[in-house]
Write a structure and sequence with these properties.
Elements lengths: L13 H11 L3 H17 L3 E2 L4 H10 L4 H17 L1 H4 L8 H7 L2 E3 L9 E6 L11 H15 L3 H6 L1 E6 L5 H5 L3 H13 L5 E7 L5 H8 L5 H4 L2 E5 L2 H5 L22 H10 L1 H7 L3 E2 L4
Parallel strand pairs: 3-4, 4-5, 5-6
Antiparallel strand pairs: 1-7, 2-3
Helix pairs in contact: 2-3, 2-4, 3-4, 6-14
Length: 289
């Protein structure tokens, strides 16, 4: 992969496959059996459409540690989520959020991975976010599109991802834009309808007023995700206990150069996989088509 602003769609290395066997019980035999059984389950769940190509099924099976029944349950939850938020997600394509990607600087991906080979997504929810120009729905749609292309990256499928929420300068304007229903939607998506493994969520630079946001979140959090959420405030050394400084930019107390790129640089990557989005937009219950 020569372009730092791209995802790595190359085949799994032996080292990556060794991690897959250790962490998600993946072997050639389990892989073949899991794909065959999930395809059969999809036939039996005829009310749902989910593309049965490997590039669609493998991310779901890896998320569920290659248990076909659990993968089918996740696919059904994905369909339910898309049904519940059909107006927001119907026919979603990169072009629809080109402006927010290019102008907002709210959703960014670090060009390097961390010490565990995990992608790091940075979401800025503080003072640089102007809800008057980019709504919370917009933010969610960008996050949703990034999760779609992340499914094509083998390292993200196997090693998982990390999210850093930067709340520097958070004020009432941003908090008022986060309704309980929108917070619930985001957390339901992460916990029940995302075919990726979110390994850690880090809240950084959050002011005291963040307690109002946390109060909105707590009622919708399951224990599994709650254990993966960590609060650091301005203490970047606490963050470095999870992600070493050498894997982080100066923005977060790291030794790497300060971030000088944004969603504008990543948007062409999202657009590059337009054909995959065209396939993905049909996922869900068939009676919604």
């Amino acid at each position: 992969m020569s372009n730092v602003f791209d995802i790595d769609v190359s085949p799994e290395t032996p080292e990556l496959l060794a991690i897959a066997e250790r962490d998600i019980r993946e072997t050639p035999e389990i892989r073949a059996k899991g794909l065959a059984e999930l395809r059969e389950l999809l036939k039996n769940n005829s009310d749902i459409y989910y593309c049965d190509e490997d590039e669609f099924l493998i991310p779901v099976l890896r998320t569920t540690h290659w248990y076909p029944e659990s993968a089918m349950k996740l696919i059904r939850q994905i369909a339910e989520f898309r049904k519940d938020h059909w107006k927001l997600l119907k026919d979603l394509m990169p072009e629809q959020e080109k402006g927010p990607f290019n102008e907002g600087n709210l959703v960014n991906i670090l060009t390097n991975k961390d010490h565990k080979n995990r992608r790091m997504l940075v979401v800025s929810g503080g003072k640089i976010w102007n809800p008057d120009s980019i709504s919370y729905d917009c933010l969610f749609r960008m996050f949703y599109m990034l999760h779609i292309i992340a499914q094509l990256e083998k390292t993200s499928q196997i090693c998982g991802c990390v999210v850093i929420y930067d709340f520097e300068g958070l004020g009432m304007k941003q908090i008022k834009a986060m309704s309980p229903s929108s917070i619930q939607r985001l957390l339901n998506f992460i916990q029940y309808a995302m075919p990726l493994r979110i390994k850690e969520i880090h809240f950084v630079k959050q002011p005291l007023i963040f307690e109002m946001v946390w109060a909105l979140m707590k009622p919708f959090l399951q224990e599994k995700l709650k254990k993966r959420i960590h609060f650091h405030g301005d203490d970047m050394k606490k963050l470095h206990k999870f992600i070493p400084a050498e894997n982080l930019p100066k923005n977060y107390g790291g030794t790497m150069p300060e971030i000088n790129y944004s969603g504008k640089d990543w948007y062409p990557v999202v657009e590059k996989y337009n054909d995959y989005f065209l396939k993905y937009k049909d996922v869900g219950f068939k009676d919604l088509k």
